[in-house]
Amino acid sequence: MGSITPPGPALLRGFRLRRGRRRAVILAVLVAAFLATFLIDWAVTLPAVGATPAPTASASASASSAPADTAPASTQPCTVSPTNGCIQGTITDSDREPVEGVDVDVTGPDGFSRTATTADTGRWSVSVTQAGSYTVSVDQSTLPKGQYLTNAADAKRKVTANLNQNVGQIFQLSDQRGVTTTDDATSVTPQRAWQQFASGIRLGLLIALASVGLSLIYGTTGLSSFSHGEQVTLGGLLAYLFANQLGWNIWLTGVVVTLLCAATGYLQDAAIWRPLRRKRISLTQLMIVTIGLSIAAQYAFQYFFGASTVRIQQGNPETIAFAGVTLTVQSYVAMAIALVVLVATGLFLAKTRFGRATRAVSDNPALASASGIDVDRVIRFVWTLAAGLAGLSGVMLGLVLNGVNWQTGLQLLLLMFASVTLGGLGTAYGALVGSMIIGIVVELTNLVLPGDFKYATALVILILILLFRPQGIFGRAERIG
After folding, report:
1. Model pTM?
2. What residues contact residue 237 under an 8 Å CB cut-off, 6+ apart?
3. Spatial contact of 85 and 112, defined as CB atoms under 8 Å apart
4. Under the phi-then-psi rule, with left for phi > 0, alpha for psi from -120 to 50, and beta for the rest, what region is 36?
5. Span 182-189, mean pLDDT?
6. Share of the chain above pLDDT 70, in %
């Protein structure tokens, strides 16, 4: 019976080195998690920047004793806070110019009644201190001579307002008298279709920021990450933490949040995905891990930030009319940033050596490894890039949607999966094209379907893709079995 040769000194040193490196990574993850938990727990206890203090008992008594329907017209801007919400909007004439001096009446629960007058920017706003259903009415007697609402029945609208939230209403005037039937208030007009089309481009660009990373993860690892939506939520909530609670500049906030989210992607691969890959865990088991991470992250967001919607910027967003489309300033800036980042990502993948290595791993990991490419290094980079892009998408969405909450990313996850499936799984360019198509179709669906029913369109598209072209637009058909 042969003797067992003890391991040599070099092998023992290599084993100790790998064990020491693993311990260092685990220790770094634990320290980072502790510091992040402490920072978030400390920051969310700070009072919101610009928040309106709760009224005193005497002030409340004075306010309740004053007749609600005698409140004077106001042109003062409204700022949301945990104690009040804002109903605001703009009124523009037939030439898309702001209209000044138009009275807007807002009535609500418990006899609430306020009147706001549009300023020279066409903006009006009313502060509410109680969540509920409100009626917004335009006093047509104060409209400029020769200007009318595009639809007379649209002069009175029902809105639902919440505290710490902004509700926007835009009224458009015309030089022709509007119809008086309610049915035409929801009719499909070229102007409305063009507005929804522009909103679809905006949604598509912001979804593409997250979908490109999701597609790259699938291409290099074969894993469909169900926790990718929470990276979007993390970006939005961290932006709220730095910009709102700590008062940072919004540009600095965007850069720092993107880097922090990218770091979480790096740490995820170092602490979870690389060890699991080395143990040759199946993709089904890895996918279940991503589902668990998604649920754990959602509960963590609720614990630290609560279940309510929070706003990154408290001020009322200003709108700009361009080419017949009226969007907020944040929307135009977010679209420009998303377009620049997506173009830069595409050029990186196409023109740089590391980008070509990433595409090689996505095409065939085994062949790429045989060619001398460090596959683990490429995958680590993909996780980092994907998390950073998702975090940036969360910041942009939080600014465009006027708020973010613990399930923002979860609500967009179906749109992201539909986008990468439509474009072709594993292809970054396919994810971009698929996101644009999904965004436009979803927003145009809002012309005929009310509310969040439009998101069901993504599910219909996903089913049709799987039935008629499972490989997607840019995907390749493969033989299975």
Report:
1. 0.66
2. 301, 304, 305, 310, 394, 404, 406
3. no
4. alpha
5. 54
6. 78
